[in-house]
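Format notes (please read before filing issues)

Several people have asked whether sequences and structure tokens are stored in separate files. They are not. Every record keeps both together, in the order shown below: the sequence lines, then the token lines. Line labels are part of the format and must not be stripped during preprocessing.
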Amino acid sequence: MNIVNLENSNRKITNTRGNFSVLEYNRDISVSSGNAVTEYFMAEMGVHRRQVVINMTGSNTAILQAGAMQWMAGDIKIATDIKGVGDLMGKMFKSSVTKETTVKPKYSGNGILVLEPTYKYIILKEVSEWQSGLVIEDGMFLACDGTVNHGITARKNISSAVLGGEGLFNLSLTGKGVVALESNVPEDELVEIHLDNDELRIDGNMAVCWSNSLEFTVEKATKSLIGSAVSGEGFVNVYRGTGIVLMAPVTSSSSLFSATSSISAKP
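Then the structure lines:
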């Protein structure tokens, strides 16, 4: 099998890690008179369509969010990662608390696997490079190597997490292999902070992912509720210990991604 024009003058591979690559479109050229202006200004502002391409060699497997596959070529087989009723119940619980799909299909074989396009930014990370694994914000998981293990990580102090308006659990990834994350913020804008027996306080869920070795709590900005009220800050996310935090310095424009999500439905 030979795919001769996966890359062309309008789409290029912009990043590769392991068997995962990011295919980015320079602009959307399948336009009509009704959306040509919108598509033009989207391209000028750097809003591009992106796809994850996975090279299946026979020795590797890939786990995807359900419904993420767009097309595949070659001798590739699909199986669920459900090992029994107990495993299904456990995955249903993980799904309910982390906003991820319950069943994540596993792909194996030889060929090429291409995921559905997205206007979000694709971040590729090697899980083994993070202290004791990687914890990610809800809804960011897209795909990973089959060698990566999935679990959930809970806040240490549940009561403060509830008061702070944060979720109680996050998806954690351990082992060795590449994970593809969907981010509202480009990787170039993310701030990478390495903690060495130290702490980081963030007002809001600006952290994209962090090392599983870090203790993650939600706490009052000051020691008292009155002090928090006077300072204008309520609850903050606190990361303590030794590890890495990848943080967005600005809040992404929700209106932008709500608009592009509707555009992405066009053929």
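For reference, the curators noted about this record: Residues 83-89, 226-232, 254-267 have pLDDT under 50 and may be disordered. The helical segments are 36-44, 85-98, 158-163, 225-231, 254-263.
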